[in-house]
Write a structure and sequence with these properties.
By secondary structure, the chain is of the alpha/beta class. It has two domains: 147 residues, Rossmann fold, CATH 3.40.50.1000; 67 residues, Orthogonal Bundle (DNA polymerase, domain 1). 41% of the residues lie in helices and 12% in strands. The protein has a six-stranded parallel sheet. Strand 4, helix 8 and strand 5 form a beta-alpha-beta unit. Helix 1 crosses helix 4. The longest helix is centred in the middle third of the chain and has 19 residues. The structure holds 6-O-phosphono-beta-D-glucopyranose (BG6). The site of 6-O-phosphono-beta-D-glucopyranose (BG6) has 17 residues, from helix 3. Keywords: Carbohydrate metabolism, Isomerase, Magnesium, Metal-binding, Phosphoprotein. This is Beta-phosphoglucomutase. Its EC number is 5.4.2.6.
Length: 225
C-alpha cells in the first residue's frame, strides 16, 4: 500500500443491509394511503439514493413546505423501520470485510441519503458504528445522490482525497454520485443486476455481497484493475 491514506465509503441502504425491498414496500404503502400507485422498478431507479425530501417533492408536489415534508418523511421512514426491523441483518461478509480493511489501514465511512433515525437504526441496531470514522447522512448535506455531496463530505471528514476513496453502492444514482465525486465504485447487486450499471465509468468490481470481495484486490494499483 502507498503512503497516501485510502478510504472505503459505504452507502447504507442496499449495501450495508439488503433492505431496498423493504423501503419499496414502505413507499408502496405510503403512496397507497394517498390513493397513488407506483411502479416498483421505475420508482427504484428514479429515487434510490435521493433524499426523502427530494422524493416527496418530486411525487407529491414542489409546493410542500419544509414542515409538511418533514412530517411525510417521518411517516414513511417509521413505516420502513417497522417492517424492516424484524429482518435487520448486515449484508453477508460485511463485518469480516470491514475488519480486514481496517487491518490494512483503510479508513471507513458511511455516506447515505437516509435520515438520522434510519442511520441509528442500522448502525446501532447491528453494532456497526464502531467501524466507521465518519458517518454522513441526509441531515449533513443539501443535495442527495446523484449529486456528489455526501461522498465528498465523507472524504473531507476522513481527510482523504476523493481519488483515494472507493465507494460501495447498490443504486445507479449512487454510482453516478460517486463518479461525480471522482471516486471509483464497487457495485453490490443486492437490488439490480450488473448490467444496470454498464453506462458508468470506474466501476472496479461487481459482487452479490462482501464474501465475494477481496480488500487486497481492491487496493491493488488502478493499472491492474
Ligand atoms: O443512500 P442510501 O443509504 O441508499 O439511502 C437511500 C434511501 O434513503 C431512504 O431514507 C429513502 O426512503 C429511500 O427511498 C432511499 O432510497
Amino acid at each position: 500500500m502507498s503512503e497516501a491514506k485510502r478510504a472505503f465509503v459505504f452507502d447504507m441502504d442496499g449495501t450495508i443491509v439488503d433492505n431496498m425491498g423493504f423501503h419499496m414496500k414502505s413507499w408502496i404503502e405510503f403512496f397507497h394511503r394517498r390513493g397513488k400507485d407506483i411502479d416498483r422498478d421505475e420508482f427504484f431507479r428514479a429515487t434510490a439514493g435521493r433524499q426523502g425530501k427530494e422524493i416527496m417533492r418530486a411525487y407529491l408536489g414542489a409546493h410542500l413546505s419544509d414542515d409538511e415534508v418533514a412530517a411525510l418523511n417521518a411517516e414513511k421512514e417509521a413505516l420502513y423501520r417497522e417492517i424492516y426491523g424484524p429482518h435487520l441483518k448486515e449484508l453477508a461478509g460485511l463485518s469480516r470485510f470491514l475488519d480486514e480493511a481496517k487491518a490494512q489501514g483503510v479508513l471507513l465511512a458511511v455516506a447515505t441519503s437516509g435520515p438520522p433515525e434510519n442511520i441509528d437504526f442500522v448502525l446501532d441496531g447491528l453494532k456497526l458504528r464502531r467501524h466507521f470514522k465518519a458517518v454522513v447522512g441526509a441531515a449533513d448535506v443539501k443535495r442527495g445522490k446523484p449529486h456528489p455531496d455526501v461522498f465528498l463530505k465523507a472524504a473531507e471528514k476522513l481527510g482523504v482525497a476523493p481519488a483515494d476513496c472507493i465507494v460501495f453502492e447498490d443504486a445507479p444514482l449512487g454510482v453516478e454520485a460517486a463518479q461525480n465525486a471522482g471516486m471509483p465504485s464497487v457495485v453490490l447487486t443486492t437490488t439490480l443486476p450488473a448490467d444496470a450499471f454498464s453506462q458508468y465509468d470506474k466501476v472496479i468490481a461487481v459482487a452479490p455481497d462482501f464474501n465475494e470481495l477481496s480488500v487486497d484486490e481492491l487496493l491493488a494499483p488502478a493499472t491492474q484493475q
